[in-house]
Specification:
The protein is of the alpha/beta class. It is 41% helix and 12% strand. The chain has ten helices and eight strands. It catalyses: (7,8-dihydropterin-6-yl)methyl diphosphate + 4-aminobenzoate = 7,8-dihydropteroate + diphosphate.
C-alpha cells in the first residue's frame, strides 16, 4: 500500500505517536514495556486523534544495547496486531528486515528505519517487496558510536548528501518514490547546534521532494535549551516546536503525547 492510500490528512501536519515496548528508552523506558500497557497507551492515542502509531521493540537511544530479533518481535507483534485491529495506522520502528516483514504481516502499514537501511543489507529489498511506505532517517554509526561521529563542516549539506545516497539505494532496491519519507535524525550523531541548524533549514531537505518527518520529542537538545535533564520537562518545548513546524508546513512530527500536539497544530492552522 502506498503512502497516498493510507488516508492520512493532507491539510495539516500529521502526528505520529511513539510507543516504546522497551524497558530502556530514554523518555518513557519501562512505562509501556508490556503488551497490555502498550496497547492501553495506543488506544488512548487513538482516542486523542493520533494519525500513526509508531511501535518499537528496541531502544535506539545513544549507548543502547541491542536485543535479539526474536525478543524484538515478541515485544511488538501483539501490540501491532491489537492496534491495527482497533483501526490504527501502525508503523514499525525497526532496523531489522525480518522484524519489518513480520510487523507488516501483523498489520503494520509503514516501516520506520532509523538506519535508513545501513543496519541490515536486506532491509531495502524487503521493504520494496512489501510495497509499503518507508521512513529513512539520517544517522551515523550505531547507538554505541554515534556521539563520536557528530562532526560536520556543514551539517545541512552533509545530512542532505548522506540521505540522498540512502534515497538512491532505496530507489535502486525497488522502493517507489511515493513511498519514501525522510527524517533528518535529530539527536542521532548530532550535537544541539546541529539539530537547530537542521530545523532552521528544513526547507533544504524538503526540496529533495519527499515528505519530512521530524522527531524532536523530549530530546536532549531541548533539555539543553530549557535546562532540564528530565525528558518530561521538555514536553512544553516540544509542543512549541510542533506549532512552528506545523506553521511551516512540515509533513509530520513524531511525539510522545498526542492531544497537546494536535492542539498546537490546530492553532498553527489558524495562521495559515
Amino acid at each position: 500500500m502506498s503512502l497516498s492510500k493510507l488516508s492520512l490528512p493532507s491539510n495539516r501536519t500529521i502526528v505520529m505517536g511513539i510507543i516504546n515496548v522497551t524497558p530502556d528508552s530514554f523518555a518513557d523506558g519501562g512505562r509501556y514495556d508490556t503488551a497490555v500497557t502498550a496497547i492501553e497507551r495506543g488506544l488512548e492515542m487513538i482516542a486523542e486523534g493520533v494519525d500513526i502509531i509508531d511501535v518499537g521493540g528496541e531502544s535506539t537511544r545513544p549507548g543502547a544495547d541491542r536485543v535479539s530479533p526474536q525478543e524484538e518481535e515478541n515485544r511488538v507483534i501483539p501490540v501491532i496486531q491489537a492496534l491495527a485491529a482497533a483501526g490504527a495506522i501502525v508503523s514499525i520502528d525497526t532496523k531489522r528486515s525480518m522484524v519489518a516483514s513480520a510487523a507488516i504481516q501483523a498489520g503494520a502499514k509503514i516501516v520506520n528505519d532509523v538506519s535508513a537501511g545501513l543496519s541490515d543489507s536486506q532491509m531495502l529489498s524487503t521493504v520494496a517487496s512489501l510495497g509499503c511506505p518507508y521512513i529513512a532517517m539520517h544517522t551515523r554509526g550505531n547507538s554505541k558510536e554515534m556521539n563520536s561521529l557528530a562532526t560536520y563542516q556543514d551539517v545541512v549539506a552533509e545530512v542532505i548528501s548522506e540521505l540522498s545516497a540512502r534515497i538512491a539505494d532505496a530507489l535502486a532496491a525497488g522502493i517507489t518514490k511515493d513511498n519514501i519519507v525522510l527524517d533528518p535524525g535529530l539527536g542521532f550523531a548530532k550535537e544541539p547546534e546541529h539539530n537547530w541548524a537542521l530545523l532552521r533549514n528544513l526547507d533544504a531537505l524538503e526540496a529533495l521532494g519527499y515528505p519530512v518527518l521530524v522527531g524532536a520529542s523530549r530530546k536532549r537538545f531541548l533539555g539543553t535549551l530549557v535546562g532540564s535533564d528530565n525528558p518530561e520537562d521538555r514536553e512544553a518545548a516540544t509542543i512549541a516546536l510542533t506549532g512552528l513546524l506545523a506553521r511551516g508546513g512540515t509533513w509530520g512530527v513524531r511525539v510522545h503525547s498526542v492531544k497537546p500536539h494536535r492542539d498546537a497544530i490546530a492553532v498553527a492552522g489558524k495562521f495559515a
